[in-house]
């Protein structure tokens, strides 16, 4: 690498640039994006699990080259050699590496903000559909495409930016990495709690049409929990969105009961609509959508009682049910399944959200919870962000929904552990705050409720609805929180 003055530069000027040449003593591995996207030497779904090796390499690089020596292209990976960090040390004007003060050698160097931003940019760039432009672009993609990115990547990047990491990256990320890798040692049990309220700015005094959100849950004899939140959408406030949401929930409950009956051997599962297709019905997708990275993974096989078996078929059933119920209303939806062995899945369409909140074994003084998003957004803004970092527009403008607009849906399988909280919510309950990531809001709110001695899951559902009203009450807010515990004897 060299930095040279331009050819037309005058001999003397206000700016003088030395010529610096960098020679690497060994061949460089591909950049992380090349490794994941082009060479496929690292599976994108395995990226988060492989990160501890990167953190150790980053600490070693900063120890040798000093803080402030990383750029996005510094993060590299090779299928055989593993992680490589190409650090660019700081240079003096004489072209020599600037010496850095070394302590007693017992602590790693803390990365500078530049280093943290470079790591975030490299990680997002490696899994995004298009190259990442800058930090703002990376954070927007993390918020919009969570659920299609590797699960927990948003929590990793936010911790990189928000934690001091005084003892090095590996030590600072260790509590989160342990939480991301945690699995239930045995079976799990579940309890669901729901809160819903009309936003004061939307209230018109008609209980039948004001709140167009609806939610429900069912735990059958098999021990499988199935739950859902539907957010009705209507154009003229006639209540057709509520009609759509209720029709979708009724169809979901019918489906859940059929699956439970199939598990018990009482009846075969129904793969067809209970009535003929009506207005707005769609055919189940024949190909894997871009938002379904895990449809061929563990837990996604079709069959009675499987975690959200055949998600495309499920969405098609719900869409047809909405079409039969109303010609004008529509709904966003998020549905989740949690099995007694700890396997779980979510399927979503629209801008409803699912989050996993998990206890963090963090040092004293840190918030003892973390959270990560499980679902992407299907909005006009999201569609534009897929192709350009300059995306603008209304983030709540849906491009996919139940009621004739299910071109895109998302499916994610994951695992839960005792102590987890699984949140399903309408967009009114996940209203963002200025310059605050909602995952940090969830972690802090959960920690406060836990410390108060109140039952955390129902208190969190109530607190999220109250928070939505405190932020202005612009929309109906519905929060369904599933508390995961150890299996009951």
TrEMBL record:
<feature type="region of interest" description="Disordered">
    <location>
        <begin position="262"/>
        <end position="311"/>
    </location>
</feature>
<feature type="region of interest" description="Disordered">
    <location>
        <begin position="199"/>
        <end position="218"/>
    </location>
</feature>
<feature type="compositionally biased region" description="Low complexity">
    <location>
        <begin position="294"/>
        <end position="311"/>
    </location>
</feature>
<dbReference type="InterPro" id="IPR036457">
    <property type="entry name" value="PPM-type-like_dom_sf"/>
</dbReference>
<feature type="domain" description="PPM-type phosphatase">
    <location>
        <begin position="197"/>
        <end position="484"/>
    </location>
</feature>
<protein>
    <submittedName>
        <fullName>SpoIIE family protein phosphatase</fullName>
    </submittedName>
</protein>
<dbReference type="Pfam" id="PF07228">
    <property type="entry name" value="SpoIIE"/>
</dbReference>
<dbReference type="InterPro" id="IPR001932">
    <property type="entry name" value="PPM-type_phosphatase-like_dom"/>
</dbReference>
């Amino acid at each position: 690498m060299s930095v040279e003055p331009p050819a037309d530069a005058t001999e003397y000027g206000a700016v003088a640039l030395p010529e610096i040449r960098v020679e690497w003593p060994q061949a460089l591995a591909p950049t992380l994006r090349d490794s994941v996207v082009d060479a496929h030497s690292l599976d994108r779904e395995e990226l988060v699990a492989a990160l501890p090796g990167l953190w150790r390499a980053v600490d070693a690089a900063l120890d040798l080259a000093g803080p402030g020596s990383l750029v996005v292209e510094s993060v590299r990976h090779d299928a055989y050699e593993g992680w490589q960090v190409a650090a660019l040390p700081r240079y003096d004007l004489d072209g020599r590496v600037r010496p850095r003060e070394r302590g007693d050698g017992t602590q790693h160097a803390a990365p500078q903000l530049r280093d943290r931003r470079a790591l975030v940019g490299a990680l997002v760039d490696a899994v995004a559909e298009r190259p990442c432009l800058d930090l703002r672009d990376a954070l927007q993609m993390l918020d919009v495409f969570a659920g299609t990115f590797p699960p927990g990547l948003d929590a990793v990047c936010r911790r990189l930016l928000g934690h001091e990491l005084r003892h090095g990256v590996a030590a600072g990320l260790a509590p989160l990495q342990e939480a991301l890798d945690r699995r239930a040692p045995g079976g799990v049990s579940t309890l669901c709690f729901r809160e819903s309220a009309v936003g004061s700015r939307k209230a018109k005094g008609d209980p039948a049409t004001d709140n167009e959100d609806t939610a429900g849950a069912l735990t059958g004899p098999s021990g499988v929990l199935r739950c859902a939140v539907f957010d009705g959408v209507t154009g003229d406030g006639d209540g057709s969105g509520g009609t759509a949401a209720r029709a979708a929930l009724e169809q979901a409950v019918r489906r859940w009961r059929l699956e439970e009956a199939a598990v018990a051997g009482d009846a075969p599962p129904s793969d067809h609509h209970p009535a003929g297709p009506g207005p707005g019905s769609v055919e189940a997708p024949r190909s894997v959508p871009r938002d379904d990275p895990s449809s061929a993974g563990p837990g996604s096989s079709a069959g009675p009682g499987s975690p959200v078996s055949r998600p495309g078929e499920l969405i098609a059933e719900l869409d047809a049910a909405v079409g039969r119920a109303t010609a004008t209303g529509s709904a966003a939806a998020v549905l989740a399944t949690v099995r007694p062995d700890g396997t779980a899945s979510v399927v979503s369409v629209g801008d409803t959200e699912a989050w996993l909140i998990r206890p963090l074994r963090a040092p004293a003084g840190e918030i003892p919870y973390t959270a990560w998003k499980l679902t992407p957004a299907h909005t006009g803004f999201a569609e534009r962000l897929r192709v350009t970092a300059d995306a603008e527009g209304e983030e709540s403008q849906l491009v996919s929904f139940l009621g004739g607009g299910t071109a895109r849906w998302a499916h994610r399988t994951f695992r839960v552990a005792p102590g987890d909280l699984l949140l399903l919510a309408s967009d009114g309950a996940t209203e963002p705050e200025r310059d605050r990531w909602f995952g940090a809001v969830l972690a802090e709110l959960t920690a406060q409720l836990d410390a108060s001695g109140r039952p955390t899951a129902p208190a969190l559902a109530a607190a999220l609805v109250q928070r939505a009203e405190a932020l202005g009450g612009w929309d109906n807010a519905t929060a369904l929180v599933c508390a995961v515990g150890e299996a009951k004897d």
